[in-house]
Amino acid sequence: MRLLVTGAGGMLGRDLLAVLDARADLSVTATTRAELDISDPEAVRAAVAGHDVVVNAAAWTDVDAAETQERAATVVNGEAVANLAGACAAAGTRMIHVSTDYVFRGDATEPYPEDAPTCPVNAYGRSKLVGELAVARLLPESGYTVRTAWLYGAHGPNFVATMLRLAEARECIDVVNDQRGQPTWSYRLAERLVALADAALAGRAAPGVYHGTASGETTWYDLARAVFVLRGLDPDRIRPTTSDRFPRPAARPSYSVLAHARWTAAKLPPMADWWTSLTEALSSGTYP
Fold first, then answer.
1. Left (φ > 0), alpha (ψ -120 to 50) or beta: where does 230 sit?
2. What tens digit of pLDDT does each residue of 14-38 get?
3. Considering the entire predicted model, what is its pTM?
4. What letter does residue 83 receive in the DSSP assignment?
5. pLDDT digits over 175-189, tens only?
6. Which of 39, 70, 89, 258 has the most beta carbons within 10 angstroms of its beta carbon?
7. CATH of domain 2-157+182-216+259-273
8. What is the DSSP letter of 24?
């Protein structure tokens, strides 16, 4: 399998390369933002040529900045994704695109299935939905969108890293307890994306939307407490609060729990529960 990874310098991209490095049967081309501007159609066509699968981990990820720079966010998260999808369509290449739970309104009371109606509540979610729709339109038979949420990992800013840093600087930390989601280790997501690529080429995975999040659910408050427990710190240093105490430019979904039914048909089990993955991540030696 000849595989192209875009966004290879990011948190997920770097974990993808670590997973792929163990596969001697793969030929991998890795491109960072500096090496490939995915908003440039000609550059994208040249990069995609000769590959069997493209995994797009490139994205505008600054949720709050997107509120005042929605056009710029949409260029990266929407129009550039259309460039990639169009190039894949022309080359006969499969594409796996990483998206987000933010395409949903976030007011549900049970996990969102893959075909639930989308309704973003902020500019970032709208920009990502443009990308999803492009993949579905241009690659109806060979395009895969994998939505993830609450992503953390060793190679970029994220909530788990922030809690570990604040544990050194503060005695007590206030964390919101009114948002629910699925903390997802980027390394485990990377493994799942590679497995999906294998299944797609083998004809076992139907195109469309998949949800790439850990099983189970929790709140940011309980996640912070779990980080402290697993590091041998006093979890009572974490204090619960509400989202209105931390106003942000972009609205956040209060419920970001995703269902995982489509993995079964591809003969791939759902990802492990969030606590198990967090335990593995914090004992992996990649966090300080």
1. alpha
2. 999 999 999 999 999 999 999 999 9
3. 0.97
4. H
5. 999 999 999 999 999
6. 258
7. 3.40.50.720
8. T
